TrEMBL record, chain A:
It is found in: Membrane. GO terms for cellular component: EMC complex. The chain crosses the membrane at residues 13-32, 126-151, 171-189. Keywords: Membrane, Transmembrane, Transmembrane helix. The keyword NAD does not apply. It comes from the Eukaryota. Its main location: membrane. It is a multi-pass membrane protein. Belongs to the EMC3 family. This is ER membrane protein complex subunit 3. InterPro entries: EMC3 (IPR008568), EMC3/TMCO1 (IPR002809).
UniProtKB/TrEMBL annotation, chain B:
Pfam families: EMC6. One of its GO terms (biological process) is autophagosome assembly. It is found in: Endoplasmic reticulum membrane. The keyword Endoplasmic reticulum applies. Signal peptide: none annotated. This is ER membrane protein complex subunit 6. Residues 1-28 form a coiled coil. GO terms for cellular component: EMC complex. Keywords: Coiled coil, Endoplasmic reticulum, Membrane, Transmembrane, Transmembrane helix.
């Protein structure tokens, strides 16, 4: 198959504009999320259901912290803290684990309007731009070949990569303009944007990218990921974990550790 | 590259420094895959040789990192697997994108 010669004007007016426009839109979206996050004020916890949810979250955080950092506490204070949480009659975890399971309908209604508006805003800045760019590219730049991918592909990719070009025997390597849109989309203009903006945009970009991927896979995004329908089981699991902890105070080992690190320091 | 030292003991007192180190490593890897894409695209490499260039540049970046750390990985990262080999798949799509773009601009259009 002989090489196809592509006009210079395609490069000037199609290839480079698509790249530049997508990059600009990506930067604009970054600025937009930054602006919206500045505008967002902290939400007040108003409803009773939310208060109890926060209490549950705090209890689990406390027990997890205790299970992780028990080495910092001497023996008697660890035992006291553990008894406070896990005692058979009056421990917090035992009381909490006797709560009834929440049904899914109730947990959906716990999203207050502010959280819904937040999700809508994130969707807006993600999906709408994607759809807009797709429409723009496919309206203006359809029907011709734009370039060539450097690696061989199977015939199955032909429908995706050569949309609008109806030549049957054309090598699958030659791609139409919508495929360069996909390559740019998945390839991660976000990473380049991260490089340019520095480290403070890390959290926003990761969130939108992650959410976009999750929505594309068809999973629903809930605002609180750790929320399960049966908190009782969660607390029971936490309790068994705490009761199984073999406690040893780290200060007892401090002499050996000091010897080890001093040795390592002096030998250098 | 600023890499303060981190000492991990049993309590896993990982400070902010480990996070800083891994962020810098991520940035480094992005630069590395950008360069690999440019090399592969400008030289007009085809198919699997291009992928080989990506792996080679990745290993070169890891080697430079090792030299910079004076081969004492434990003081800067959690493990040598983490620091050298772990992130090879994450920047692959970025490499592909840059490769396609440069290959088209330089060789074809």
């Amino acid at each position: 198959m002989s090489d196809i010669l592509i006009d210079d004007r395609i490069r000037d007016w199609v290839f480079l504009p698509i790249i530049i426009v997508m990059f600009m839109i990506q930067m604009f979206r970054g600025l937009l999320t930054k602006y919206m996050d500045n505008k967002k004020t902290s939400q007040k916890v108003t409803s009773k259901a939310q208060v109890s949810e926060m209490i549950d979250k705090n209890i689990t955080q406390q027990s997890q912290r205790l299970a992780r950092l028990y080495g910092l506490l001497p023996d008697h204070s660890f035992k006291m803290k553990r008894a406070h949480l896990c005692d058979n009659k009056s421990g917090i975890l035992t009381k909490a684990s006797e709560k009834p399971a929440k049904d899914p309908m109730q947990s959906m209604s716990m999203m207050n309007p502010a959280a819904m508006a937040d999700m809508l805003k994130q969707n807006l800045s993600g999906i709408v731009f994607m759809a807009l760019q797709y429409q723009w590219v496919s309206y203006f730049f359809s029907g011709f070949v734009i370039g060539k991918v450097p690696f061989p592909l199977t015939q199955k990719f032909r429908t995706m990569l050569q949309r609008g070009v109806d030549v049957q025997n054309l090598d699958v390597r030659y791609i139409s303009s919508i495929s360069i849109y996909f390559v740019l989309l998945f390839g991660g203009l976000q990473k380049i944007q991260q490089l340019m903006f520095g480290d403070d945009t890390d959290e926003f970009v990761d969130d939108t990218q992650m959410q976009m991927q999750m929505q594309m896979m068809g999973m629903p995004t809930m605002p609180s990921f750790g929320q399960q329908n049966d908190p009782g089981k969660l607390f029971i699991a936490e309790r068994t974990r705490l009761e199984g902890v073999k406690h040893s105070f780290e200060l007892n080992k401090s002499q050996e550790k000091a010897i080890k690190s001093l040795k390592r320091f002096l030998i250098q | 590259m600023e890499e303060p030292k981190v000492e991990l003991d049993d309590l896993e007192v990982n400070q902010e420094r480990l996070k800083q180190n891994t962020n810098q490593l991520k940035n480094l890897r992005v630069y590395g895959s950008l360069n690999a894409g440019m090399i592969a695209g400008i030289l007009g490499m085809d198919g699997w040789i291009g992928m080989g260039i990506y792996v080679v540049v990745f290993l070169i970046v890891s080697a430079c990192l090792a030299i910079k750390m004076n081969f004492r990985v434990k003081e800067y990262f959690k493990s040598s697997y983490d620091a050298y080999y772990s992130g090879i798949g994450t920047d692959l799509l970025l490499f592909l994108m840059i490769w396609v773009i440069f290959h088209n601009i330089v060789n074809i259009l």
